[in-house]
C-alpha cells in the first residue's frame, strides 16, 4: 500500500491509500516539486526500477529552490506519507517563528531525502 495523490497538501488521509499491483509495483514514490504556486506533492505506487531511475535522474534538480524536483523511493507500506515529527527535547524552548519560506522548504526537502 502507498499514498496516491497529486496536490499542494502532503496528502496522508485514508482516502489516498491505494493497493499497489502485486509483483509489479513494489515501491512507493514521492515527488516534491517547488513551482511558482508553491509546493506540489505527487505520490504513487511504482516499480523499483522506474522509481530508482527517476530518483537518481532528478537528483541534480533537487535543490529546494524554485523549480526544484525531488523524487524519493521507499519499500515499506505507506512509507511515502508525511514524515513523522520528532519529539522536541524537554529542555528545548519554543519553536522559532518567522523563518523565511525558503528555509522551511529546504528543511522539508532535507527531511524527505534523509
TrEMBL record:
Protein name: LY6/PLAUR domain containing 1
GO molecular function: acetylcholine receptor inhibitor activity
Listed InterPro entries: Snake_toxin-like_sf
GO cellular component: synapse
GO BP: acetylcholine receptor signaling pathway
The keyword Signal belongs to this UniProt entry's keyword annotation: yes
Keywords: Disulfide bond, Signal
Stored PANTHER family: CD59 GLYCOPROTEIN, LY6_PLAUR DOMAIN-CONTAINING PROTEIN 1
Record bears the keyword Phosphoprotein: no
Amino acid at each position: 500500500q502507498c499514498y496516491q495523490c497529486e496536490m499542494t497538501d502532503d496528502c496522508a488521509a485514508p482516502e489516498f491509500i491505494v493497493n499497489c499491483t502485486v509483483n509489479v509495483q513494489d515501491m512507493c514514490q514521492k515527488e516534491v516539486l517547488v513551482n511558482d504556486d508553491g509546493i506540489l506533492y505527487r505520490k504513487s505506487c511504482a516499480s523499483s526500477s522506474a522509481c530508482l531511475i527517476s530518483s537518481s535522474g532528478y537528483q541534480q534538480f533537487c535543490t529546494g529552490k524554485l523549480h526544484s524536483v525531488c523524487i524519493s523511493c521507499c519499500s515499506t507500506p505507506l512509507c511515502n506519507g508525511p514524515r513523522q515529527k520528532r519529539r522536541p527535547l524537554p529542555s528545548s524552548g519554543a519553536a522559532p517563528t518567522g523563518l523565511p519560506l525558503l528555509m522551511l522548504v529546504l528543511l522539508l526537502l532535507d527531511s524527505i531525502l534523509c
